[in-house]
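quick one before i forget lol
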Amino acid sequence: MTAYLIKGVSVLGAAPTDLLIRDGVVAEAGAGLSAAGATTVDAAGLVALPGLVDLHTHLREPGREDAETVESGSRAAALGGYTAVCAMANTSPVADTAGVVEQVWRLGREAGLVDVQPIGAVTVGLAGERLAELGAMADSAARVRIFSDDGHCVADPRLMRRALEYVKAFDGIIAQHAEEPRLTEGAQMHEGEVSTRLGLTGWPAVAEEAIIARDVLLAEHVGSRLHVCHVSTAGSVEVLRQAKARGVRVTAEVTPHHLLLTDARAETYDPVYKVNPPLRTAEDVAALRAALVDGVVDIVATDHAPHAVEDKECEWAYARPGMLGLETALPIALDVLGPRWDLIAERMSRTPARIAGLDGHGLDPAPGVPANLTLVDPAARRVVEPGELASRSRNTPYAGMTLPGRIVATFLRGEPTVLDGKAVR
């Protein structure tokens, strides 16, 4: 294993120092280090962060390899500064058995670019009718601890209660896609002034808020862990704030696009802006940003949702919802939060790693710590070019935008997956 000497890097914005990486860990830290035979990385002006961790990634394999594969998604993640991602269950076949989650887990190990941790389905086939093999997935080689029907809500309260009770035995988590389906039938975008003007069926904020309110009550009753996917409304923030004040074991995520974009983007009728849950109002965006800072919303998760061309470049009503996110998440966090490195590390690495129970991830670079880290150039500016993205898909809503920051290098257990801004393999 090659040793690497990272010279003059700022760890989380602190004074420049050197980091020696050897045998998969940070062996030494301090000024003026030297190491015979080590490959030197000039990191002057760069900031070192713990490798980012994404709790919400769609890798599409098995079944939709035309949109993404575990390998292509892993490469996109590494280029985005990630060292671990949690892969959602809505594949084909659905990841609702030990066999399928183990397949995804092994594909991630073979790619070797990030640690791929599968998320298992809550219900068989995501149909919301009966529980999937939660225990078998938990006991599999993949050691699944998070379960989600993302893309579908576990709408039946009795089934949701049973799922929360089941995973409590091994301290698992149910990650809910909060959407009351009877309130969103035929919905195309956020219900509000813009949807009325455009003549598109609206998705009311209360459809999300009602499910979150129900589920925090169920989690409180059971004493189990609940995670709320892609929170998008100011009302949801208040429900979460009250639940946390009562000590409910609930965590929540917000996506980069819900921190930056509003429903006004739909005025172009460009399907790249169609997403589930939909882009909301400027007031919602402001509430989500504030909640991310004060911790009511715990983490940033990408909801990276690649789609084949025919599923996105069509009429708005027929387009699949979803946006790419892995390669642009950190720049958007910088755009939204500024260079608040400790906060970014907390929301994009430490806390998601802790929620998912990913040992060795979410640890600040320091002697004895596994060398899962990323180096960022905060002074760089990047124009997003869809054709330059590593994902097999091109449905980025940020095309042509200039975003701050550039991932210069990513290390997974001491081995570089990205150097000089390019994938190593």
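fyi The chain has a mean pLDDT of 97.
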